[in-house]
Amino acid sequence: MLKSARFSWGTIGSRWLPSRFGNGGGDFVLSDEGINSKRRNFLIGATSVVGSAGVVGVAIPFVGSWNPSARALAAGAPIKVDISKLGPGDIVGPIPAWRDKPIFVVKRTDAMLAALNDKKSRLADPDSLEEQQPTYARNDSRSLRPDVLVLVGICTHLGCSPKFKPEVIPQDFDSEWMGGFYCPCHGSKFDMAGRVYSGVPAPSNMEVPPYYYEGDYVLVIGVDKGAV
User: Fold this and answer.
1) What is the distance between the alpha carbons of residues 163 and 179, in angstroms, rounded to a whole number?
2) What's residue 37's pLDDT?
3) 0.85 exceeded by the pTM?
């Protein structure tokens, strides 16, 4: 069962400071005080962040500072994320924004991957024909590695941050829910690959940012490997 916790964020330079954390895997509600609308309703499953100066593994309940600076991140500087401690079914977030957008990293289970094609008829763009991802992520998993999903954590309707709802159980908003992301603001739904459901306000799939792997466990988000 998902558990809830309430916390808020503030910024000091490039540092994001949490006032309180709950345990991972649950629904989290952010205060709107001191943050913009794109940074509310984030979820924490596990957090490990690295900066350009080197790897800094940071786990709940403390999130420290990182490089590059907030100004560089807003301008589009790539970020690095250590996923070595990310377990099956976990989500990383919130982490430093890329181009002022939050990033979600999900370690999908075998069951999550197997279910991706079970309800394709309910999806608006099941084959990712719209350019919401790099060409190497235009596949059923929308990822380089099938088990690791990297998304810009923003609903494509009005820019809210969807909630992570991984359980394959009936929900108030969908009696045949297969797991994925749900935006309670206006009811948009996305599957475990960030593909949008038909008949919801969101017009397109969630964005997959450019990224590559530096070794087995470090994600470099914000640039393609061929560009470095």
Assistant:
1) 11
2) 39
3) no
